[in-house]
Amino acid sequence: MALAAADTYVVVLALTDMMAGVGIGIDALQRATPIVSGFLLGYIAVLPLIGRLADLASHQRVLLGCLAVFVAGSAVTALAVELPVLVAGRVVQGVGGGGLVPATLAIVAQLWDRDRRGTPLGVVGAVQELGSVLGPVLGAAVLAVADWRAIFWLNAVLGVLLAAAVVATGGGMPSRPRPLPVAVSLLAAAATWLALAAPEALVTSVSLGVPFVPFGDSTSRLATPVGVVALVLVAAAVALWVHGAWPVLRRADLLGALLLGGALGSIVLTFAAADPEKEVVGPLGLALLPVAAVLAGLYLVHHRRAGQPLVPRGVVVGRTRWALVVSLCVGVALVAVIVDVPLLARLVHTESETVAAFVLVRFLVAVPVGALLGGWSLRRLGDGLVSGTGLALAAVGLVVMSTWGRGSLGEWTATPVLALVGLGIGLALAPVNNAALADSPEDAHGTASALVVVARMVGMVVGLALLTAIGLHQYYAAVASLPDQTDAQALLDAAVVQVEWVFRGAALAAALGAVASVALGLGRNPRG
């Protein structure tokens, strides 16, 4: 969980270096958007499917599969010298990293009964948020001694070590690997490394360099004989693994996964690919939003007719529905702080992006503390009271933040306010998961956990776009009212107004989450 969370934010400081590594200049920042949105696309779009697989197969097997996918994506990202390959690697990373979450939460539901899950869920939430803190720090530490590619090689090594730990703690491999898929996968990995790394000793060799010569006028390393062989072997390996897992995949409702994943992917690409300075939705938003609506409608029709739908009937009922609402609100509040506190710091406190990012640490450290405290207090206070209190505290802190001006971050009061908001958001993490797991059937805990994470991530993606749009509207209105639009200090004040409005919107989201949290304590489904 910590590894997946860290990788979500690890590119914060490395993005410009990654752009240079694939031939994109700093003046073309918009072209780098897929590096971030690609990871989110992979993370969110397949979560319902992997959550369902966690219900149908052993949790150990799902964890190992997701770690294998994560390692493969990390290696491809580290080897990339062209943007499409880099984005593909990030998408694959997102698929593997996102899949670790529902499997882990399903393990908690399996090992502890619902009256004792609070503390374990708090620990899981704390570890996940700690990963978010460590992501930028890890990236900065690696960049201090190596280039950006070392970040992703480190991810790959950590993934292999974690897979070994899963095997050891799980009592060995869940089943003996089939020789043919393993052999083809190893050949695919070797061929992909050759194609993407293009070792100079081979490329410049008169006799051995022919397979590395691009076709026609192409400059892509995959548009070569060795690249084609690598792609064919990768496709064969995937086909063999899918064939072996087909009985489980068929029960998981692949059509439903395609429809729901397509709808979620369209939403991610609509909002995550937008340029917040110019638009609420991305360049393809007007086309993708109708596609998302159609796919969501088709999934609902399919859900009613399917014998075994992707999201089993009886999952999104009772407190689970309210848990999804609260999780959505948490995502909106969380992303507003993560994005706009560093933005405010760069505007009024420091010109260094690194220093601005570390201003956020005061908030990020408090989130896992709140997660631990929230999980520990569930048995005594209940889901609704813990979550509602936490989000109410976060709303109060965000209201205070919406009044911050030029010198606010330099005052001592900034630290307790940021800590209060972080503590409040952290308090809501365990209750949301606990309520969803308690009110979902025992054979659907992975699915319920996946839906909670999806709601939170959608809240982050869509909330950021909408709150930024509101803030920019207020910014342009403030600029338009200036008597002298060349006054640098007045323009700075207008930019601060934008951030203040984002915090106001986040405070509203937190307050709505606090109200919705009341429903988390109204009853329990005895099936849990």
UniProtKB/TrEMBL annotation:
- Keyword annotations: Cell inner membrane, Cell membrane, Membrane, Transmembrane, Transmembrane helix, Transport
Show the GO cellular component annotation of the record. plasma membrane
Q: Chief subcellular site? A: membrane
PROSITE patterns in the cross-refs: MFS (PS50850), SUGAR_TRANSPORT_2 (PS00217)
Quote one Gene Ontology molecular function term.
transmembrane transporter activity
Q: Does the keyword Membrane apply?
A: yes
Q: Which domain of life is it from?
A: Bacteria
Q: Could you tell me which InterPro entries the record lists for this protein? A: MFS, MFS_dom, MFS_trans_sf, Sugar_transporter_CS
Membrane-spanning residues where?
Answer: 7-26, 32-50, 62-81, 87-109, 121-144, 150-168, 180-202, 222-242, 254-274, 280-301, 322-343, 355-378, 385-405, 417-438, 450-472, 501-522
Q: Which residues form the Major facilitator superfamily (MFS) profile domain?
A: 1-525
Q: How does it sit in the membrane?
A: Multi-pass membrane protein
Q: Where in the cell is it found?
A: Cell inner membrane
Q: What is this protein called?
A: MFS-type drug efflux transporter P55
